[in-house]
Amino acid sequence: MIGPSGAVKVMIATKPVDFRKGAEGLAALVKAEMGTDPFSGTIYVFRAKRTDRIKLIFWDGSGVCLVANDRRSYYTSFLAS
User: What pLDDT, on a 0 to 100 scale, did the predictor assign at position 7?
Assistant: First the structure.
């Protein structure tokens, strides 16, 4: 498994976001609202107004990765617990 090396910072947005936004839109939101660099390697976590959905974005060195999940997905029990 390929994973991060060393300590990884995780920042969680406290307000729900528009889930129609993609990776670029969420990266712009990180820069504008959180005032941090979306290309720093930090993992940013967002939730929808419906609390059963989350999105994560992070910079992997070659681009912004977007991971999306909802309660009906297979891995949600792992993420929610």
Answer: 84
pLDDT in tens, 42-66: 999 999 998 888 999 998 888 888 9
User: Which sign, positive or negative, has the C-alpha torsion 2, 73, 29, 10?
Assistant: negative
**What share of the chain has pLDDT > 90, as a percent?**
47
42 in any annotated domain: yes
SS3 state at 74: coil
Non-local CB neighbours of 81 within 8 Å, separated by 6+ positions: none
Residue 17 lies in a domain: yes
Please list, in sequence order, all residues whose beta carbon lies within 8 angstroms of the beta carbon of residue 19, skipping any fewer than 6 positions away. 48, 49, 53, 55
